[in-house]
Every structure is written in C-alpha cells, then in structure tokens.
Amino acid sequence: MLTVLAGIARYASGVPHVLAFVVAGLALAGGAWVVSFATEQVGGRFGTATTGMMQSTLGNLPEFFVVLFALQDHQLIVAQTAVLGSILVNALLVLGLVVIAGARRSPDGIMRFSKRLPNDTTTLLLLASFIILLVGIAANSHTSAGHVKTISIVSAIAILTVYAFWVRQYLTTEQEQDAEGERPRLSTVTSVVLLVVSGAAAGFVSDWFVHALVPTIHSLGISKEFAGLVIVAIAGNAVENVVGVQLAARNKPDFAVSVIVNSSLQVALALTPVLIFVSLLFTTHLTLVFPTLLALVLVIASILGALIVNDGESTWQEGVVLIGFYVVIAASFWWGT
C-alpha cells in the first residue's frame, strides 16, 4: 500500500515534494520490513549467525538503490553521506539503542554478549576507516582524477578480499544452532517470492525517494550532507533499527548485536566497494575519497564503538554515550561542510 501511495505521489501532479518524500521514505522503510521478515523466515532454518548475516545483507538493499539513483542524478554528496551515514547510524545510534534496551532488560543492568563478533567487526571497521582516511590523504597529493579512481579501485578490491575471507571463516566456525530460535511461519518458496517482490519494489521506491530529495532539501532549508548522513541513512535502516532493539528487549543480545554490527560491517566492507565498481557505469563515480571531516568522524566512531563493545559487556550509560555522539555528528552537518 505504501509503495502504491509513493508511486501516486511521484507521478500525480500537484503533490508537494515534501509529502512525496515522506511517503517514499515510509515506503522504503516498509519495503525493508518485508525484506527483513522474509529473510528471517529463510534464515531461521540455518541459525543465528546465518540469519543475522542474511538480514544485514538484504536489509541494505534500500541503501544500495538509493546511492545508485543519487549517482545517476549526479548527487555525489548525497551518495557519499548516505554510505557513511548508514555505517554511523548502525554503529552509533542503533547500537546505542540496542545497548540501552538490552542493559535495561538485564537484572544487573549489564548487557552481555559474545565478544567474538564485536571484536572482529570493530577491527574490520577500523581497517575500512583507516583506508578511507589514507585514500583521502593520498588523493590530496595527486591532482589526477585517474590516480584517485585507481587508488579507490585497488582499495576496494583489498577491502572486498578481506571481507570475503572473514565471512567464510565466520560462517564456518560460528555456532549455527539457535536454541531459542522460533520456527519459521512461511515456507521457503513464499519467503523467496517476498524477497524478490520487495527487492524490486525497493528499486522503484528508491528512485522516487531520490527524485523528491533535492526539492525537499531546499524546502526544509537543510544541507545535502545532513539529508544523506541522517535522513536517508535512518530511512534506509529503519527496520534494522527496530529489529535490533526488539531482539535486545526480548533478551536476545547476541542476535541483536549480530544484526546491527553485521549491517555496519557490510556497508563498509561490501556495499561501498561494490558501489565503487557499479558507479563506473555512471557519469558520476563514487570513490573512497570522502570529505575529510566525514572520514575523521568515521574513524572516531569506530574507535569509540571498539572501546564500548570489545569486552562483551555494555551498560545503558555506554549506550547513551553512543547516541549522544551521533546527535553531535548530525548537528555538525545540519548546515553542510
């Protein structure tokens, strides 16, 4: 229904751009919910690790399409900030909410979870952050656009290779049996059909979302950086946000952390490199050269996340710290850079 309304708002004459943008954003979140639900039904047959990985992978479809259409529309700033915004919203805002919900659920006020995935994730996120910062510094010393593109492609290949080896090792060694797992409510065929339909719908809605984005930015008086970093990122990750918090509130901290940190990790080490290669088909190319402030924010966020989750325990106060830092980042980009 939301997808139909978004289509009407896109093509009907006289519909305010802000209204079309809001409806498209809600449709984007609704489609992501269908993807998340169908993925859970399929992945529920394989255990927590696989389900968390699948939910994060397919849950990032909206971000993928939004960035593609932004590049097609020559909105490089929106594309860049949407990519890094997806990482930050999961690594800071959503993880903070999960930590608060999980800690409040625990009798002693401490959320406990397996250390392995957070340790691996923070290490790999730091790797991606340092590479982005290094590529940015290297690009400043080369005036040729060809050099920048070459450095980005080489770095993207390196990041994807590291991620592929990590995923293989993680899925083959992680405990795949979830003792508290719920029996899937849908058949595999029905779940796959839902995935295909919702994935296709996400492509159309993302196009409508981007189409209404720039007029909405002008109407609301916000910057493109804020729109991509906050609005687009939160809309694209809305379902994962809710799913992660619900899992933590239901005393499933390992599953909650798996969904959230996998999402951040996949955007940084899989989605971004893939988008770099796909963007070569467009006039506007995405590279690993991001604005310096954004690159520094990503590095600081990765370090802060590592300090909070690497011991396998978090209190609600630490969740507040993560959310507070995200709020400061969002405020810093309200007027652009």
Would you summarize the structure shown here?
Helices cover 78% and strands 2% of the residues. It is mainly alpha-helical. The longest helix has 33 residues, at 188-220.
Largest sheet: 2 strands, antiparallel
Content-based structural category: mainly alpha
- What sort of overall outline do the alpha carbons produce when their principal axes are compared? globular
Q: Which oligomerization state do the chains in this entry correspond to?
A: single chain
The helical percent reads over 70%
The count of β-strands is 2
Helix and strand string, N-terminal first? Answer: HHHHHEHHHHHHHEH
What does this structure look like?
- The structure is a single chain.
- By secondary structure, the chain is an all-alpha fold.
- The chain contains 13 helices and 2 strands.
- Strands 1-2 form a two-stranded antiparallel ribbon.
- It is 78% helix and 2% strand.
- The radius of gyration is 19 Å and the shape is globular.
Question: What is the fold's blueprint, element by element?
Answer:
Elements: H1 2-11, H2 17-43, H3 48-59, H4 61-72, H5 76-105, E1 110-112, H6 116-140, H7 145-173, H8 188-220, H9 224-236, H10 238-249, H11 253-278, H12 292-309, E2 313-315, H13 316-332
Antiparallel strand pairs: 1-2
List the defining traits of the structure above.
337 residues, mainly alpha, two-stranded antiparallel sheet, 13 helices
